[in-house]
Amino acid sequence: MQPDNRSTKPQLQRRESGDLGAELATDMRESVLGFYGIEDEPAEEVEEEGFSNQDKCARTQVLHAEHSMPGVPPWHEALIPSTLCIPIAANYLAAVAPVRQRSCDKLKAHWNKTLTLMNQSPEEAQKLKDSKFGGTVALELIESHGEKMRLRDRIKVLLEGWRDLGSWMKALAVFYQSLYMDIEAQRGVAPPLHQLTRGTGEFAKTDVWFKPSSEKASRVLAGLPTNTQLHAVYCDGEVDDCVTHGAATALAIKFTEGGLHKIDESLKHAQRDLADCVAELGSTLRAQMELYVSELELEYMKRYDLCMSQVLGIASTMVVRRITEAIRGKTELDRMHLKQYLSIGMLIHFANLLSTIGKEHGMIEDMVHVTWRLARVQFEFVGKSMKPNEGEKVHGVKHEGENLVVSVALGAEDHGTLAEVFQSMPTKAAQLTIGRDPTQLRIKVHLWPTMFSQGVDIMQTIAVSTGGSSKLQVLINHEGFSKLQDYRKHYQNFHKRNKSLDEEKIQNIDAILKELAQDLAEPREKNVDILTKTGICARMLGGAQAINCKSGKDRTSMLVTLKAANNLQKRFNLTQQQKQEIMNKMRLHTGVRLRNCELNMGQQRYAFNMFANTFLPPELVPPAGTTGGSTS
Q1: What would the mean pLDDT of 456-480 be, rounded to a whole number?
Q2: Which of 209, 492, 519, 565 sits 20 to 30 Å CA-CA off 85?
């Protein structure tokens, strides 16, 4: 198959003058980007009026490739950008905007009182302190003019940040909704994943929009996941699929205070310290500590909403794919998978290839924090009348207590199948729905997120050789292993109850888990087996899988093709040489991964070089002649 040399990143057109989404693309620069502490650079001029080069999505058609070689049935490879990420971001940010606004109002009130007190004379301050302001700042703070000025300036900056946070989330949500409407207006309807990935029907050549890795630091696109693709391999009646993506991280606002995991730990520590010693502290120190806690809370919320918006789009792609494939599979195994998801939840497995040094360490901190938070997310499937061949749509995102509920509308036939399976289950909730109109049922699936991390490139070698900390990587892998074991127990109990337990499968899973326990007990540098073995377990347990590096195109391409080759090797009892040939076919121009590099960076080359290749594990080394691309 020849390289696709078509223009890969055409401009998104503005709509009519006065359209809110189009206006936001320009107006948000001064008001919103300043809130994030980023100096805006002049936009590069383009021939046609549109978004700036820094803030555009890329457009592609679904990538397909056909492969064949002796000893293996022909296999079909497909790569499609997710159609769910933009509406998920719009709905999530719209849902959190009022929540953030209430938090902002509460904290603004507290610090406005503090400012009021600080602006009084010592005598007036003492009176206020003893009355309605309750001692927020004591007399000695008022008398310390230099300290007073420094704190007052910090408080003013903090108040400006809190004032902008809620409105920023709302504005970004409106912008993404408008962007989604622009795309839908050009495309007609959202293509269904099952038609796009199989390359059938009228949508086989449909344009799909996504955030390319060249824009991963884009400020206006900061709530969208980078290069989120569904990579599917079809061979001899079976499909092996995996979502590939860039890290879910707030790269646009840098890592001054670290990533989310570090900020969250710092925040909890500061809150504990403040609570433990508030009575003993002088009022000056107490005010400083309260201010420090509020500054950390603001930094945390700025990062959290951007990262959560991204990981929700990735998880939505994984969950909707598994659910719709099981619905349309029509086999007894598919039906049992649906019962499993409705009963014990769905395992979603993330394999992370980021290094434990520099910015990538901060990215890991962002991603693991929001990935673990997916345990509080439920997917709610509703029925809806749709246009012919229209795909799944995001119906909304809402809070229910501490949980986040993502509502997805399925076509009437798909939802009817899901409702039928749900009503057949021997649970009180299912039995209460019998006799109701199936299209009115709101059927929920909760998530079991697991994440495993292993740096593999030259930066990981530097991290190890310079004594860089890999504590977070160890923590992630042990936590992921514990959650994987827990899900395996629930899986076994579920299938025992339903008299559908495959004892041989359980034995195979247990054998892999035993090997993993040994790998974790005796860690070694760049142990890719941790990622591949846990992925095999996830697949055997009916889970969804995702792989990421920084941009989702280079290291990710190497691991996802290794995963596919491992599966074909096991199915058809292939030699190591045949497995290597399979990987090469998918990594060369005959596959879809190099074309994905072109869509992201304009070059059909992986961002490695000959020197960097020597530091990669052998199974992740790209074929000769495919490296030297841009490193974004």
Answers
A1: 89
A2: 565
